[in-house]
Design goal:
This protein is of the alpha+beta class. The two termini are 15 Å apart.
């Protein structure tokens, strides 16, 4: 038996909530920049200032004329605005800056269990459960598609969502978004077994099951 001290199902909830910025202490949300990420900076009509740079371990970047700028925790748009503000005071008239994240070290998802290549994978913009599993080269041959758990911390509380890949493929419910620091476990696992008292013998089809872990 699973006691309520271990797992509490969230009634009337079919969506695993997104984490807050405070939850993501190792890496920020997929749209945010973190230490050691590589970014492409393009300054319109000023090719000498356009460049690819790596964010340093403290979350800062250095640019000619703009100086040192804190990039950690900023979206691409926020960092572009910060660079524009710095350049505006350094003899660049009406600078237009765009930022693209080329590769991410700080923003990763852990994929474990019955996938071809378990491991840590970069979180990209608009990553979903299906895309994350594709990053791990797909499901293993005998993977249990109805036993997929996403583990996440939301407002300081650990949560889990139980999903059915086959149901998502059939359009029974939406492919859920994936965030940095999520852990995806495919197949039988201690986390999956916590749900056994709440799932009937029939496959999970109608909606995901969301619960607090305690």
């Amino acid at each position: 038996m699973v006691s309520t001290a271990q797992l509490t199902v969230v009634k009337n909830s079919t969506t695993l909530p997104a984490p807050t910025r405070q939850d993501l202490t190792v890496g920020d949300r997929p749209a945010l920049i973190g230490p050691l990420d590589t970014i492409q900076i393009d300054v319109f009509n000023v090719p000498d200032l356009s460049r690819e740079v790596q964010v340093d371990a403290s979350g800062r970047i250095a640019m000619p004329l703009a100086g040192t700028i804190d990039a950690r925790g900023k979206t691409s748009e926020e960092l572009a605005q910060a660079i524009e503000a710095a350049l505006s005071g350094r003899y660049v008239r009406n600078p237009e800056v765009t930022i693209n994240i080329k590769s991410s070290v700080s923003q990763v998802v852990t994929i474990d269990g019955q996938v071809v290549e378990p491991g840590l994978y970069p979180v990209t913009n608009q990553m979903t459960l299906m895309r994350a599993i594709a990053s791990a080269k797909g499901l293993a041959e005998f993977a249990r598609q109805d036993d997929v758990v996403i583990l996440r911390t939301v407002e300081g509380r650990k949560m889990a969502g139980l999903y059915n890949i086959a149901a998502i493929r059939r359009g029974a419910y939406d492919d859920p978004p994936i965030y940095a620091n999520d852990v995806i476990v495919v197949g039988d696992s201690p986390q999956r077994r916590l749900f056994r008292d709440f799932v009937s013998l029939s496959p999970l089809l109608a909606a995901p099951l969301v619960a607090f872990l305690q």
